[in-house]
Queue: 4 jobs
Job 1
Amino acid sequence: MNISFYLTRPTANIETSIYARLCYSGLKLKWFTPEKICPSYWNKDNQRAKQTGKFKEYPEFNARLNNIESYINNIYRRYLNDHGGKIPTPEILKDLFDTEIKKREPLAEKERSFFGFFEELINQSKKGVRLHPKTGKPISNNTVKTYVTTFKHLSEFQLNYGREINFNSIDLDFYNDYVEYLMTGKKLHPKTGHLISLNLSSNTIGKHIQIIKLVLNEGTERGLYTNKSFKSKRFVTIREDSDSIYLCEKEVQELECLDISNNARLEKVRDLFLIGCRTGLRYSDYSILKADQIKDGFIETIQTKTNAPVVIPIHNTVKKIIEKYNGVLPKSISNQKTNAYLKELGKMLPSLTVTTSKTFTKGGIRIVKNYKKWELLCTHTARRSFATNEFLAEDYPTPTITIMAITGHKTEKAFLRYIRVTPSGHAKLLQRNWTNRNKLRVAG
């Protein structure tokens, strides 16, 4: 057996954990020792603390590491003797090290199986028997898909990096390693077998961390998990504001007036998109509207994502489209095809040929990329356009609380982060309100 000691964060300015890398019989194990040290006191060549007066405890510290190395070898040899030479799995060795070196109680099978518990939550969500803790509604299919993706990333991380994942190993060291993996790590391509970079965006990483914390919270509630490292402020769900575009009122009207009567394919996509612009509904909702959901001048529907009811007055544009199709709205196509057709439509609008920049973090690198505005057009642009235009309406802006009742945002903070209002837009909004007040004073 080959045993090496490494620092978890070798460039940190504070104490960091020391882990042992074990290689034996073609197997590998990364096991975190109970020791920590400031990297400035560590000698990476001999894998022990430096002999320096700045770290006077180095003799005792190095003695403890020597003892740990001896314990590891003894535990391994004893297992071979007790099991007729059978090679222990990394999981078995880790449990033995935790029990004998860290003096922890042996883990029960259900405690050791983080993935088993996670898989159980996924299966319950798929069956609709697991409910959202806030809404009391079944978990949506899209959310279940995200669970599955997070599960796969964690499994690949454990496999490719030899890092066993269980309830008690998910701590701040895990967090830092895993976030770095999602940013810059590599995995095997399922078909070619070649290594490919993950290179995930900050918001995607944040979503996966959010789901891990959700699983840990449920594990805590069921008594499977006592380590509270995931509740640390440093175990943060990464998030950055989106630069997604919206169409201003003038651009929405320009799209509505576009003559494409000779192209039924694009005309149907345009008309459905306009319904989204005037209702604030998600594509999953405005693409499946039926005539029986339109009653007495209002649209009444149950939102697919949240399962919440919503009532929306029928805008004149929506009324014209309903009449145009004799009360039967155009049949929708896939979201992917709709997005492609919307870009085709966007090219026809002069106002969408302007260049706009999009800033995002990917692979840990801040990127600024220029696009033509039509290149960023997608089905969700309709909903964002509705919210932003109602907020900025010149004559009679809709109260924020009313817009939120339609869009389903729970807090004003989340809503204001969602709409596309620039600092100059806020300044113009304030300037317009001052002008309107002065007009009222003069008229009075």
Job 2
Amino acid sequence: MRTKTRRLGNSRGIQDPKPLPKRRRLKDGAEILVRRNTPAARRAKKAPRQGWAAASKEIAARSEDNLVWPEFANEADADWEW
């Protein structure tokens, strides 16, 4: 299969030739890999952020959901009137 690159904002991209997504069963998205300097597309193994909600609930249940960075004020915060 042959295709052209196209401008996509500040980047270059390729448009999938019609047989490619069907042949590779790429419905909702794909992972792009580079093997030996050759790009390859495959079905995404899982949805991005899959399992994050359950992991967050688990962390909260263990009371480990404190801030990583402590809250800090800016130098001029005391001068502000609300």
Job 3
Amino acid sequence: MFYRKKRLSCNLTCTATISPYGVELIKFFSGGGTKNEYFAEYYEKLLISMREKYPNKKLVFLLDNLWAHKSILIMKIM
């Protein structure tokens, strides 16, 4: 008989930000999808990075309708 080993949280999520200049920040998360805390950590690093890279530019971020993009954590960071 063939038995499959049970895999625990074999989910890998890639979060990336692109601009006309290329990839601005990329991060991989493992263990169960895009959680609010994971995305908030990514978004905070993104804002710091973009403000340093483009100090005199107005930054506009477009996010899709993923629930993690609308969490209270993200609203506090903004």
Job 4
Amino acid sequence: MEWRLLTQRYLTAREAAERLGISLPTLYAYVSRGLIRSEPLDEGRRTRRYLAEDVQKLADRKAHAADPARAAEAALHWGTPIMESAITLIDEDRLYYRGWDAAQLADTRDFEEVAALIWTGEFDGARLFDQPTACAAVPDRPDNFPLIHRFQIALAAGAAADLAAFDLRPEAVARTGGRIVRCLAAEAAGQLHSAGIASSLAESWCGGDPATRKLINAALILCADHELNASSFTARVVASAEANPYAVVIAGMSALTGFRHGGFTEQVERLLRSIEQAKQIRAALEDRLRQGETIPGFGHRLYPNGDPRAIALLERLAALKPEAPTVALVDALVAEVDSLLDLHPTLDLALAAISLALDLPRGAALAIFALGRTAGWIGHAIEQYAEGRLIRPRARYTGPPPG
């Protein structure tokens, strides 16, 4: 039942009552009190279905009351939120930044404006990004390294040179965030020009086509934040120790490179490269499944009906490159996985598809992810600095007894 609650949006009355350990009349009483939302299953019938999210929240509350220690432990593993944030809301298969639909922002705003929104609540990005970076003088960059590792080297050098980064007041951190993002963008593009970060990347990677610039801008925006994922939680822990924003971003980026997080994009790229023609898709999937492997790039626990970030980016890519072999391959792969497993594409698949279809440099998919997500890490740092408390969970000792 626990697994189903994470993958189903609705439960039957009997399933909901079983999960809560209550009778059906008690379930109906909870509904009448507004604790659980329900809706008709079919028009004209009395049968109703119950929102799994509400059932889970009520179950979590009951568990916390009965055993606070156990509830706190579960909260660290896709449990109920363990801290408050005003940055991102994930609701009904939609993603919102400070109340603004992220997919709409990707159509109407520049990445710098959305970063400013996350950091300050306003779209005024010009004053935060019109600054020199502290990374320009780093000698002997290893250009053959993947971009994500060059990012980490540039951040370490910038942290040593940028004394203003030790000012942890909200406005000062937002300005440091602007310098950090520009530092990373300069590392990826080689140089920045006045048209902005997405334009600089498009110019360096693809020749500066305006439509390509819009797609890269949208990808940066849709990567900007995703609530308390592993990298953002890591960033908040580091910020709670009052490390400066460079250290926060280095920590978040380190978590992002893991294969259970942003590093998934590289697995997706390998899968796409291994399937040269659409007719090989079924065989490739069968081979992975028979070996007990998952299909990378599909099935997000928070989006049972599809990751809105992937939907938005794959639609934009198909419109930009309708004849690209990668687009046809991804379309066929999505259809096959849906038929076999009833799973939908995630952001990782969309980023890998963009990288291959546009023939971007090695590691560009993860670099876009990291550059975009830096906006979120800085936003979480600002919130955590203001909180003024150290994040310090306790451990339940399971080792041998003393002596």
